[in-house]
C-alpha cells in the first residue's frame, strides 16, 4: 500500500497541514514513518514538514517544509521530495535531498512527470512510471539506480510498481478500457525487452502485498484501497492464515516472511466516510485499533497492542523484518514508535 501513503503525503502537502494546525492548536500531526533501506535512519511526515532522525530517535531534524514524500534512495544517502517548482505546470518533479545537507538534485530531469518509482530488490535498478513530454503517452521505464541508462519499456500508466523476486520483471496493475470493456489487469514486463508484456486479469477479491503473497477480502464490504475486510493471507494462492478482520493498513517483509497490520476494534463505531478513505484528524483520534504481527512461516499471530490503547496507523516493517515503525495516537498525542519484536520492546522516537 505504498502508493496510498505517497498520495496521503501529497494531499497533506497541498495546504492541509494549515487546516490541521488551526483546528488542533498547532499540535504536531504525524502521518507516517519510513525506514531507510539500511535500517539505520527514519523519516517521518508531520504537520511542520518532513523530518529525519536515526533509528533511536536522535538527531531529529526538519528536512523540508510540508511537501510530497517519495521514499528513500536505494543507498540510504537521501530521500525523494516531490514538488513542483513551477506553479504553472502540473507535472510532478522528484528531487533527491541528500542526508549530508548538500543541495538537492532533480532525479531524471529528462522526464516531464514521474507518477511513481521503485528500486529493485538489489538496489541496482529503478522502475519508473512517467511521461517524457506532455504530448507523449505514459510509459514504464527502467534505469540504473543513479538514473543513468534510462530506457522505455512499454506504454502504461500506474501509480504502484513492484519488482519480481529475481529483479527480472516489473509488475503492476492497470486499468484497460475500450468502448465496451473496463478491466483491471496485472502486467509483468521483462526488463530485458526480450519478451512481450504478460497480462492476466486481476483476481476479484485478491490484493497483492508481496511476491506471491496476497490477501483475500470481501468485495461487498471492503473499500479498496482504503479499508479491507480481509479473510485470508495467501501464499502462492493457498491460505496460510485466516484473519476475518477489518484492516486499516498492512505491510509485508520478504526477509522475515512476516506481516504487520492494524485492525479496527469496532468498525461499526467508525464513520462510513472514513472507511471509504475520507481521512480526518478528528476521526482518526476517535478510532480504536489493535496492532498485529503474523509469522507466515509458523502460521502464528501475535497481538502487539490490544484494543483499548488508542489508534495505531501506518505500520512499516524494517528491512530485516525484525522491527516495526508505526504512529501511535493516544490522548491526542501523535508519536512515532519503534518496536523491537524479538524483545517486545517499545521505543517512542518523538517523545518530547
What key attributes describe this structure?
352 residues; mainly beta; 3 domains; seven-stranded antiparallel beta sheet; four-stranded antiparallel beta sheet; 9% helix; 48% strand; globular; disordered N terminus
Helix-strand blueprint:
Layout: H1 2-24, E1 30-35, E2 41-46, E3 49-54, E4 61-64, E5 68-72, E6 78-82, E7 94-98, E8 105-106, E9 113-119, E10 125-131, E11 139-144, E12 151-154, E13 162-163, E14 169-177, E15 182-190, E16 198-201, E17 206-210, E18 213-217, E19 228-235, E20 238-253, E21 258-264, H2 272-275, H3 281-286, E22 289-295, E23 300-305, E24 311-317, E25 323-330, E26 333-340, E27 345-348
Antiparallel strand pairs: 1-2, 2-3, 3-4, 5-6, 6-7, 7-8, 9-10, 10-11, 11-12, 13-14, 14-15, 15-16, 17-18, 18-19, 19-20, 20-21, 21-22, 22-23, 24-25, 25-26, 26-27
